[in-house]
Amino acid sequence: MKLVAVTSCPTGIAHSQMAAENLEQTAEEQGYDIKVEVQGAMGAENELSDSDIEAADAAIIASDTSVSQDRFSGVPLIDGTVKDAVNDAEGMIADAVEAADGDKPATETDVGSSEASAGPDQQRRRGGDRSKSLVARLKRLFS
Questions:
Q1: Is 68 among the catalytic positions?
Q2: What does DSSP say about strands 33-40 and 43-45: parallel, antiparallel, or unpaired?
Q3: What residues in the chain have per-residue pLDDT under 70?
Q4: How far apart are CA 124 and CA 121, in angstroms?
Q5: Which residues pair with residue 47 across a beta bridge?
Q6: What residues form DSSP beta bridges with 80?
Q7: Structure pTM?
Q8: Cβ-defined contacts of 119-124 (< 8 Å, 24+)
Q9: With left for phi above 0 and alpha for psi between -120 and 50, is residue 75 left, alpha or beta?
Q10: Are the beta carbons of 59 and 78 closer than 8 angstroms?
Q11: Catalytic residue chosen out of the listed positions 1, 9, 23, 59
């Protein structure tokens, strides 16, 4: 399975590089091919070509800034933050594989997943468990 990714943070010095490295290492460990473009204040590194994107089974955008998603039309897209890629690259890659309708082994992270399913052409936004949010905790506290 081939994946492409874009990581981007406002400065592009450390966090986007860490996210890119984590995505690359995790994909390699799981046996997937991945090419990661890093965007920052200095421009783009390892830029994705049109042929890279066309050959991809899914795309991951891990960004804290605005990233043009137009070039990923027709490719299943997983959208998250740089923090998601740094802390949970395995989860982002699993979501990308699932969005591409690929085969993936069941892992412990699959159990209890509360994310809504989306079609392969539909963009999905990653997020935490809403029942663990501060607002939900406060509601339970004052109920």
A1: no
A2: antiparallel
A3: 12, 102-134, 136, 143
A4: 10
A5: none
A6: 62
A7: 0.69
A8: 120/76, 121/74, 121/76, 123/69, 123/77, 123/79, 124/77, 124/78, 124/79, 124/95, 124/99
A9: beta
A10: yes
A11: 9
